């Protein structure tokens, strides 16, 4: 007789816990209190720089690995230090709510089958939504319709009911393309092409890709081509746009930096040429002897795009010690993005890779050769990345470039990086790497 009352009590407790889970947090530096743990911003937080050295960071709270929609935390930094923060957060989720999440996840295959006629599935995510004072798990499914004219998001609840259906639109058009998502090159996928102007070309807000051999054009901004045969060159142009826009977004997320100019890329050139000059990149497809499918090698594309950022921040030369610094920073930024010390490992045919920046070279190994000496720089930055993490290492690299300037050389590297790392809490770890690499002996 007592069991029904026990389950009723358990239900009431879980419901009450859910209702009490919301809390508002507000903190300011003048309070002298330690910031709440919820104020640690994730690496992908939205960032906006404002005058007077203010920076806004804003992100969705996640709990149990699930995003809580419309529960934002906003943090303001002043001169790089936490200044003010406010948000609504969840302390915890009840056992019964985790059960609801699990049951909706279990129904996912059945729901996908029911919605299959809506076209090609582009994205799916399970998240937590706020409904008045209660929570509910929802499944978000985004489809490209069979005629490839629009993208629609469906929200499905725990009863497999569609509670919302809407066409997704942006100020800048989000096109659709076919590209490889990673270096495995196993199978191309349908991918978003962000920030397109909507003129039917691969022309975006920050990046423009055009072909040396054929116009890449589609009035509906759908760029789906085969990686093989006569469509391979068009495919390669789309691959360049997708990879470089992803790289540029990654740099913006980690450093809050956008290029002050539109980066242009001329693709499908003959041979194996690949270089950057004054805001433009030239990328060949490969000669089939030394290189093949260069546009499908993210390390090469990002290396050339990194030169654009180095040019904008420091305007380092292309020769001498400044040239080695230029190449070393470009290699490091590309490797940090791919999270691999190997460059050219996809396109280079004569060896497993063209360069490896995880090498034991020190400043004492300098021989005056451009790329050899660049490895001293890139391997130093790579070791620092392993010690302090990718976001901080990339920020440190950008700030060091700013202090190096157009006349940067190996001797000015130490004063530049020491000025840049004043905000780091683990300066001694970085200095030990610099000492081990022989930089203080110059």
* Beta-strand proportion: 25-35%
Number of domains in the coordinates? Answer: 3
What are the segments in which pLDDT stays under 50 over at least 5 consecutive residues?
5-20
Structural class: alpha+beta
Write the CATH architecture name of the largest domain.
Roll
Structure notes:
Helices cover 34% and strands 28% of the residues. The strands form five sheets. Strands 1-5-4-3-2 form a five-stranded antiparallel beta sheet. A four-stranded antiparallel beta sheet has the order 6-7-8-9, with helices on one face. Helix 4 crosses helix 5 (298-313), helix 6 (320-338) crosses helix 7 and helix 7 packs antiparallel against helix 10. It has three domains: 17-90; 95-167, Nuclear Transport Factor 2, Chain: A, CATH 3.10.450.40; 180-441, Elastase, domain 1 (Roll). It has 442 residues and is an alpha+beta fold. The chain has ten helices and 18 strands. Strand 6 and strand 7 (134-144) form a beta hairpin.
Provide a compact summary of the structure.
The protein has 10 helices and 18 strands. With 442 residues, the chain is of the alpha+beta class.
Describe how the helices and strands are arranged:
Elements: H1 2-20, E1 22-28, E2 46-50, E3 54-63, E4 66-78, E5 81-90, H2 95-106, H3 108-114, E6 120-131, E7 134-144, E8 151-156, E9 162-167, E10 173-179, E11 189-196, E12 207-211, E13 222-223, H4 232-255, E14 263-269, E15 274-277, E16 280-284, H5 298-313, H6 320-338, E17 342-343, E18 355-356, H7 370-388, H8 390-404, H9 410-420, H10 427-436
Parallel strand pairs: 10-13, 12-14, 14-16
Antiparallel strand pairs: 1-5, 2-3, 3-4, 4-5, 6-7, 7-8, 8-9, 10-11, 15-16, 17-18
Helix pairs in contact: 4-5, 5-6, 6-7, 7-8, 7-10, 8-9
